[in-house]
Amino acid sequence: MLKRFEALTRVFTILARGYMWETDEPDVNRAYRALCAWCSLPENIHPQTKKEGQDRTCYADLHDEFPELVDEEGAGWFYTHVYNVINAVLDNTDKVYPTSVNSAITITKKFDAAWCKQVLQYQASLYSRNTKGWVRRFEDIV
What we know:
By secondary structure, this protein is mainly alpha-helical.
């Protein structure tokens, strides 16, 4: 999951359903915002230059609404989790397999740019020219 972002559709569906149905009436916009908060990258992470019209990747402004999903700097739950796993592996190299250490180093070098690209893709319009093939989109989830 950390290298190829596989199985995230199931995670997104669970998150969206949980936040959509917190009240008696479904709130699709709240579910969409929760997904954005969960996927958020900190504001100082700009591995890919966004083009005009592309959505943002930092959702620090959603911290008040979703403090459990994004911190004040915009680090979403998934971003924080990935770096916690990497740090745990790198802090305990004597207790993990060498392949795990190599994977952690590789992920450290490539994760920010890859995750930024994914977060932008999740927000892409169905009719976007940049949408290639079958992709996961937040709109499809909610």
